[in-house]
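Chapter summary example: a protein plus coproporphyrinogen III.
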Amino acid sequence: MNESGVAIPVVEALHGRKQAVPPVWLMRQAGRYLPEYRAIREKTGSFLALCSTPELAAEVTLQPVRRFGFDAAIVFSDIMIVPLALGQRVTFEADEGPRLDPVMDATLIDSWRGHIDDAVLAPVYDTIRLVKAALPAGVALIGFCGAPWTLATYMVAGQRTLDHAPVRCFAYAEPAAFGRLIEILTAASVEYLSRQLDSGVDAVQIFDTWAGVLPPDQFARWCIQPVASIVAQLRSRVAHAKIIAFPRGVGTLLGPYVECVEPDGIGLDWMIDKKFARDCVPAAMAIQGNLDPIALLAGGAALDRAVDEVLEAFANRPFIFNLGHGILPQTPIAHVERMVARVRDR
Ligand code: CP3
């Protein structure tokens, strides 16, 4: 329930309560596939300038909710805000994603301990307050951060790499220094997410986009353990915290992941076998996902079938309809409309 006593379906699902019509939102729902986003983005200059201007960030957060009537808004920002707040240089190259000054230096890493530049994060909290005041009753506001492992992949390599060799070599060669980086990111994430919850988000999502590239023992150490620690610490700081974990590519390690992390909701990618996933996830834990973003791009009867498969696989349990990863910028708006109608009017 929100202050006015209206139930928020996304939050209800995260309490383990099945909704007759599943709530729906999309990862990366604010962005380049929307003409109204592109119009604001063109006027704003850099992507980071947009993220750190609360009035504009609030506006682009609200755009997809207005257009499609989604059940949740996700705060417009980026996971790279945390490395920036720790003192790493971060820029965004047009259409190429983040560029950071690569770190493999233990002394530099140690210099970040306990350091977090609040001025970098403050605009996010202001955006949250503005969006919260403008959102229709019943629509959830979701905050987020990147999981320590996924942040480290970018922080060590300086950019996205295909094989994640830089970060994986560093973790093999200097596990103690790498462990300290993961600890620093874990502590910063707890601080950042608890401030987001204090500012008014209804739930938070932890994005572990590159969780799927590690062997099981390293997955336990660098993905499961830090995210489990964030979840436990967050709950002890904010009793009502509702938390969604999204370990993309988790595959056969889903069972141990949900058992150790114990999130309120588990985000699934589109690659996982739906029956396998259903059998691994406790009945009271919400599942979120997992439409293939390419099915949404393809549209037509193939999209309808893919939507139906997701709805049927996760009927009769707490469930939030979403994609299995972010919406692609070339996705036609009509396909999103068709998807939402199919979820709600079947
Ligand atoms: O609508 C929303 O979901 C809220 C905003 C949001 C953005 N990034 C805005 C963004 C969220 C939740 C993210 C998360 C994020 N950012 C992740 C985890 C989820 C995922 O998609 O894997 C990662 C790995 C990043 C890092 C990042 N930021 C990359 C790799 C890129 C380039 C690729 C791309 O999609 O453009 C970005 C840039 C970015 N983040 C844009 C947006 C709207 C595009 C910037 C622009 O408008 O020029």
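Key point: The first strand starts at residue 72 and ends at 74.
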